[in-house]
Design brief:
Helix content is 46%, strand content 0%. With 76 residues, it is mostly helical. α1 crosses α2 (27-38). It is elongated and about 55 Å long. The mean pLDDT is 90.
Length: 76
Amino acid sequence: MGQVTLYMDEDTLGRMRAAAEAAGVSMSAWLAQLVRERTRTEWPRDVAALAGAWRSMPSAEELRGDQPADIARESL
């Protein structure tokens, strides 16, 4: 298992320590979970399972209703 050394200010360290304590894990485990969440390459299973679950979801046109059409964007 690899090791990482981090340098951070005391305020950030204190917030990380409090978050890890609230989660009931070590700071190392808390930070590792944060990295896993932020570098995820696919949707969590619970979110993917929701696909198609909202059968009465209105279309984009229905959601927009009587809003005027978008204006043309400026080219770069």
